[in-house]
Write a structure and sequence with these properties.
The chain has about 400 residues and is of the alpha+beta class. It is built from eleven helices and ten strands. Helix 4 packs antiparallel against helix 5 and helix 5 runs antiparallel to helix 7. Keywords: FAD, Flavoprotein, Oxidoreductase.
Length: about 400
């Protein structure tokens, strides 16, 4: 079992410790299902959504007024969920995360009728959510978006293409961002709750990546969405996206921490059981140095992650700087930690199916999605400059 001592830190309340214990016990009881890597990743994801929904853990992703666990959504609970799930299964973490990311903007900006229509189904695992922001020429540069939304009587017509969309092959509901033209650049984008059963929606390409996920390119051809599916105000889509990512970005760091803690435990098991030159591998000073780096990185990441989550839950309006630090440090450090674990396993570490080999594939995408590491550095630097100049970070 992964280290649990962090749960005694003052960031957490009794309810968090109880939730973490329940989720950990559930993961161990469902270990066979969580560890399976089937040939059909779509089916695996649907199964995991149903499992997590039936166990009530998806309730953490939506507000309590709509079948959720807390109001507002508790970021510490999200981080604990992702850390624990990632420790046991990268795919289970993925499906949990997408339920939160796919509906975060609806929870924050949706009309009451839209919240009532969709959020309870997401919390129950009856509806799968996704987040459609990226395009081929508009990833980190959101202002380059070309997918369009034009106003018509009673709603909007959406046209265009999105790519790198997680859950793109299986989502029932997407948060879609499109250029509505109120102003140039990022100021002319709007956000919409979009049911994928809408006429004109299609999946044009499945994208295969090193850690299989239901990733796709999707297309909108004259897709109509009603007025009440607009999230926030027209032209405020960039604000909607940033507020959603601001709330959830630290959870990416938490997932990375879960991977890193699992890699550390696998490395410790290997180092203490494997003999080299007549003594345990753990007796070598270079091995001890690697293990020390892993432990240090894990606790450093945890402190940054749960500082950011605690600040958000205490009502701090924006945690952009804190969340950027948490994601950057945790994802980059987890990559190093997992690499050290693979090295300690030697040849066995690169055999497909070995846990550290799985982790090596799973961690890489976290340094890219929801803001690449380079973007996080820009965010942190700008905050530091603004503070030095007497402005607001």
């Amino acid at each position: 079992m992964a280290d649990q001592t962090y749960l005694s830190w003052p960031f957490f309340e009794r309810r968090h410790r109880g939730y973490a214990a329940d989720l950990e016990a559930w993961c161990q009881a469902h270990a066979d299902e969580l560890h399976a890597e089937g040939a059909d990743v779509d089916a695996d994801c649907r199964h995991l959504v149903r499992l997590l929904g039936q166990a009530d853990f998806l309730r953490a992703t939506v507000p309590s007024n709509y079948g959720g666990l807390n109001s507002p959504v508790d970021v510490r609970t999200l981080c604990l969920s992702r850390q624990i799930l990632a420790y046991h299964s990268g795919l289970a973490d993925f499906v949990f995360a997408m339920q939160g990311l796919g509906t975060g903007a609806i929870s924050l900006f949706g009309a009451e009728a839209i919240k009532q229509a969709y959020l309870p189904k997401v919390a129950a695992g009856e509806m799968i959510a996704g987040f459609a922001l990226s395009e081929k020429e508009a990833g980190s540069d959101v202002a380059a978006m070309t997918t369009s939304a034009r106003r018509v009587e009673g709603g909007w017509i959406i046209n265009g293409e999105k790519t790198w969309i997680s859950n793109g092959t299986i989502a029932d509901l997407l948060t879609v961002f499109a250029r509505s033209g109120e102003a140039p650049g990022a100021r002319g984008i709007s956000a919409f709750a979009f049911p994928t059963a809408t006429r004109g929606f299609s999946i044009t390409e499945r994208i295969d990546v090193i850690a299989p996920h239901p990733l796709a390119t999707i297309r909108f051809d004259e897709c109509f969405v009603p007025d009440d599916h607009l999230l926030g105000e027209a032209g405020q889509g960039f604000k909607v996206a940033m507020a959603t990512l601001d709330m959830l970005r630290s959870t990416v760091g938490a997932a990375a921490l879960g991977f890193a803690r699992r890699a550390t435990d696998e490395a410790l098991g290997r180092a203490t059981s494997r003999e080299l030159f007549g003594a345990p591998l753990s007796d070598l000073q270079l091995t001890q140095a690697a293990l020390a780096d892993m432990a240090l990185g894990n606790d450093s990441s945890a402190l940054l992650i749960y500082r950011a989550a605690w600040a958000k839950d205490q009502g701090q309006p924006r945690i952009t700087r804190e969340a950027a630090m948490a994601k950057l440090h945790a994802t980059d450090t987890a990559q190093l930690t997992i690499d050290k674990a693979v090295q300690l396993f030697g040849g066995a570490g690169v055999v497909r199916g070995n846990m550290v080999e799985r982790l090596y594939r799973e961690i890489r995408a976290l340094r890219i999605y929801e803001g690449a590491s380079e973007v996080q550095k820009v965010v942190i630097a700008r905050a530091a400059i603004a503070e030095a100049q007497g402005g607001k970070a």
